[in-house]
Amino acid sequence: MAQLKITLRRSVAHRIPEQRKVVKELGLGRVSSSVVKPDNAATRGAIVKIAHLVSVEVVEG
């Protein structure tokens, strides 16, 4: 099953609270922090909400 590596590229300072909450729930803290999450609908939906703040790579695993 494929996984997604999500990296926070832009700060969440001065962003709306919903976007800050999504970033925190994904496990991202500081700029340049990364997490690996399963490629499923829930993860994709969270990424769509903060697409302008993150970069995403597909990791085969």
Automatic annotation (TrEMBL):
One of its GO terms (cellular component) is large ribosomal subunit. Keywords: Ribonucleoprotein, Ribosomal protein. InterPro entries: Ribo_uL30_ferredoxin-like_sf (IPR036919), Ribosomal_uL30_bac-type (IPR005996), Ribosomal_uL30_ferredoxin-like (IPR016082). Residues 4-54 form the Large ribosomal subunit protein uL30-like ferredoxin-like fold domain. It comes from the Bacteria. One of its GO terms (biological process) is translation. One of its GO terms (molecular function) is structural constituent of ribosome. Gene3D superfamilies: Ribosomal protein L30, ferredoxin-like fold domain (3.30.1390.20). It holds the Pfam family Ribosomal_L30. The keyword Ribosomal protein applies. CDD domains: Ribosomal_L30. Belongs to the universal ribosomal protein uL30 family. Part of the 50S ribosomal subunit. HAMAP family: Ribosomal_uL30_B. This is Large ribosomal subunit protein uL30.
